Amino acid sequence: MKPVVSLCLSLSAILGAPYVVAAVAAPSARAASSPAVAALTSASTSTVAGMAAPNRANATNALNAANVAGTTDAAASANANANANAATTHLSFAALGAYQPLNLRGLDDARTVNAGVRLDRVVTAARLRLRYTYSPSLVFALSHLKVSINNEVVATVPFDREHAGQIVTQEIALDPRFLTDYNQLGLRLIAHYTLDHCEDPENSALWADVSPTSELILDTAPIRLPNDLALLPAPFFDRRDVSRLNLPFVLPAAADNATLRSAGVLASWFGAQADYRQARFPALSALPSDAHAVVVARSEQLPAGLQLPPVNGSMLIVADNPAAPGKKLLIVTGRTAAEVDEAGAALVLGKAAMAGPAVRIGQIDIGAPRKPYDAPRWVPVDRPVAFRELTDELSQLQVHGSAPDAIRLNLRVPADLFSWNGAGVPLNLKYRYTAPTVQNNSALAVQINDQLVKSYRLAPASADDAQGRLQLPVLSNAGNRSSSALDIPAFRVGSSNQLQLRFNLDSQKTGLCQSVASNPVQAAVDPDSTIDFSGFVHYAQMPNLAYFANSGFPFTRYADLAQTAVVISEHPAPQELESMLTMLGHMGQWTGYPALRVQIARPRELAQLTGKDLLVIGGNGSAPLLARWQKALPLSIGAASQDGAADSPITRASFSVKEQWRNGAHLPDGSARIERDGALAALMGFELPGSKGRSVVALTATDQQQLTQLLDMFDKPDRVAQLQGDVALLRGGEVDSMRVGEPYLVGYVPWYARLWSKAIEHPVLLGVLGALAGLLLAIGAFTALQELAARRRGV
């Protein structure tokens, strides 16, 4: 083997936690000094980005020439593989974020849909399958739809009378040279309803709707990427790809707790990267034949056939997957379990100085433990939060046009926020708008989770606005500026929320043929507007599966899962390992932070888990994993039949139902008995026996295959919305939620809040006590005044 070159770099300024990286690269990797290679290894945000498709291919070919020492026969074989791996991708507008129809209104209205192209794919052909409906009242010779890609007009779609008012499907060929890694697909309506010069831009006849089932269809071929850590998280996760992340983890047979913990930390990091896309992490014991994969193992446990540099410490390596041409492996390894853990921590904490096919980690410090409720994706609950902290780009707080889309701000907050005095969430809203010249129906609607909170009428321009002399506000824009303070009702706020600010700027046209410019109006919300959750306490009645399914509470109370242990069976099946990795991926998605301090344990180690909330994963409801908690379990499935036959296929359980929900309806309480010979999966929550206030959430099923059904459920918002209580049964895709066990309380409420909460439950008694208190106060004041008067008289 050729000699290895080492380079030590300090990352303390990057991470705030010092560690040393040693870059290990084969001599061929020195070609990174060439311009073509530098273009790719600069950063994943600009890697072959911003180039048209042919340029991406040319840059990649140059990279391959610089990094891959191969023969002409090898190149021909690679081309053959590329042709064999060509694929066609259908991206519906709904998958690209346009869940509702694109409603185009007025003389000139536009909407944009964003689409990306994976870094390891190049577009060879593209077409747009557009499904739309338009008004039958248009002047068809003048009306049409303009289609653009990255602000370049690529096609026009004419309208005709024959298909007006009907759903029209039209396929438009697109030049793939216009497509880069990030693309904006624009649709602009040009509409006229009369040949006169005094059209009303707000006329109801000016409309066209584009269906969310419209598709962007891309024919792509693979690009051979170099083995370079600078590209991470690509190609294992590519943020240009809007589909669900499916990333296999290759683990050694009978992996120990330390290896599973390292894999779990990586899964939580990839889950945070995937975010809204969701993520699944199948667990394999061999290299996949058709996918990128992450390999986590000590050096002696690595799969055979890998061409790697010597493993002489904590190492991160990107290598070709010998079982899948064109696919990559991210190898997290070391000589010991501690070194494997250090390598994984170095990856999730920062990769700014990582480059080349391999790095060796010399030292790692994961920093101080996280504080409660400080997850990066959660809104701070200890102070007022400015809107500038809730958006990536301040331009998202500005809109234009008479009926623009709503300004949307995502608010993820802890699930245990409790308003003991019934107070709402204070919102200090500052906004600006183009003021109408006369009083009209212009308004601002404030909504939370699509529910109206309050609507404000926008005032017309005043006489002072036309004086011709103004003072330009510092760091602000011209226009009417208003400020409003309101409380959002606390009962409308959950753990995952969206604040919607919807401007409706009414037309200022006052009569027929009154000239008005098209869409002259603008509006903006000031970035200094604030929302304040600091007046709430942390207090919740548990168990509540809705808290877990929507935000991972109570485990995500600490973003690094410092008080969480995942309990898995002694010999877990692949489905159980997939469930463990996927659920930790969800934790990362909810918090935006890797699970650096999570603990993995087996049933025999339960006695050692003190001060922990437990996430229990077991594919057999009758396994010893849950047997010791038989009396505390709200439901036992997979039990033996009454005749004692342990291998009976019948699942039996009896329990008393206190509350039951199904399809949003509250059903009568009573007892229930399950006696089935079919498959059944369950999600359960209960208080850990012997540990006051500690929670257990268990994913269990009659067999390991059913665990994947539970994972599928978490990917479907309509199913997640049905999770309530402490037991959720999943049968044939249907979810039944109920409350079976006794509730318990977590959190803290001040003594005065508890006293007041009890008092308001008895309004009559509270009124009597208030009257007595008032009487005593009056008597005391009267007595004091009498004494004061007596002293003045000298008595």
UniProtKB/TrEMBL annotation:
Membrane topology listed for this record: Single-pass membrane protein
Pfam families registered for this protein in UniProt: BcsB
Signal sequence interval, chain numbering: 1-22
Compartments, as annotated in UniProt: Cell inner membrane
Pathway per the UniProt entry: Glycan metabolism; bacterial cellulose biosynthesis
Alphabetized InterPro entries for the sequence: Cell_synth_B, Cell_synthase_bac
GO-annotated biological processes: cellulose biosynthetic process; UDP-alpha-D-glucose metabolic process
TM segment ranges: 764-785
GO CC field: plasma membrane
Domain of life where this protein originates: Bacteria
Keywords: c-di-GMP, Cell inner membrane, Cell membrane, Cellulose biosynthesis, Membrane, Signal, Transmembrane, Transmembrane helix
Predominant place of localization: membrane
Function: Binds the cellulose synthase activator, bis-(3'-5') cyclic diguanylic acid (c-di-GMP).
Stated family: Belongs to the AcsB/BcsB family.
Subunit annotation: Tightly associated with the cellulose synthase catalytic subunit.
UniProt name for this protein: Cyclic di-GMP-binding protein
Source organism of the structure: Paraburkholderia ginsengisoli
Gene: bcsB
